[in-house]
């Protein structure tokens, strides 16, 4: 079988239904063109409005990107503090922060915010952003130049920063933002009521006047953008199907660099490509103590069997004959720990399945603990999220952004393993997700007009509370 077309074959097609620009150097990022050969065609089509807004964003990025005349000018103004005429070029700078799954979700959120507010997104490269992701926009980099004036302050920006939007409001509620060259937006889970006013229309009107917004977040905050009235119409036009927001933004923005693509494509071809069906099991355990835990293994098996993702085994020792034309299933497991994988693999080695199916169980790595600052570690984490997104059916763990990235890129509605309480496997063990969208873990609960608390998960039908976190919000 020769299922893997070369980059050239694929190029004759419009790239992902026109989602991607065709204006790229092909060899610098093989995944951008080769990934279509590894994925089933998406069941969803990007709206023509999204496609045209992406092309006009790319043009804006080209006019305003790093070291363009306009960029140099607004940087000068930032240094001098002078506020002169309004420039065409305004920016959102995304600060590299938190685990890789979180970073992918916040970067998608920052990009959509930039799109909605006609800003240019620039990416703080952190330790390894350039090592993990190809440039998503043609001809001009999305990486913030390392000589950007306030880049060395990024690590110090936090909830208490005097430059944060929330703290400026506290000091002076009628702050004249129009005199500011930059403002720091603190959208991290520990943010307070003032920081959260970012999600109010009135505040958006004043924030809009600031040329440089510096943003730090560890949350997928897009669901709350859908509750801001002035963004509503545009978001409707961009995404007539609400649950495809991260699916399309993710496929547009995040292309593994060639070394990461090597990890993905070699693994896929060696272990997954030939199977009749591919099942992903993403295991992320937030409990303290070293696993593997028996209750987690019980839960994984209970969910997989109950939902018929994996077949039952036949414990009767004398089954001798095997049905012909056996179907094969490849199970791709990801976890920091090898224990769950070893047990599942052994079960399907030691016993035959009642259906006669042959089950292969694979896990690319077991890194034992989170190592956010290490290159090879994050390459593997990215490769594994991507490999999970190439499966046909996916089981994910509650609360994990690692799993959210896989489900969104894959266009998969996962079965979510409920979070275990008191070291026991929950019953039922899992449920099917309402949509493939990620969950916003720390949303505001505020009615900006009435200035009172409100249940933001009950305002419109397409923004609901999440399956895995009762106070979270997700698009459905
Ligand atoms: P979250 O904590 O599950 O929301 O996901 P994040 O990706 O934000 O942070 C977890 C980090 O731990 C990842 O970025 C990896 O560095 C590491 N990690 C967690 N689970 C796995 C896994 O299954 N495989 C690998 N390779 N790394 C993992």
TrEMBL record:
One of its GO terms (cellular component) is Golgi cisterna membrane. It is an enzyme of class 2 (transferase). It holds the Pfam family XG_FTase. GO terms for biological process: cell wall biogenesis; cell wall organization; xyloglucan biosynthetic process. InterPro entries: XG_FTase. Its EC number is 2.4.1.-. Keywords: Cell wall biogenesis/degradation, Glycoprotein, Glycosyltransferase, Golgi apparatus, Transferase. It is found in: Golgi apparatus, Golgi stack membrane. May be involved in cell wall biosynthesis. Belongs to the glycosyltransferase 37 family. This is Fucosyltransferase.
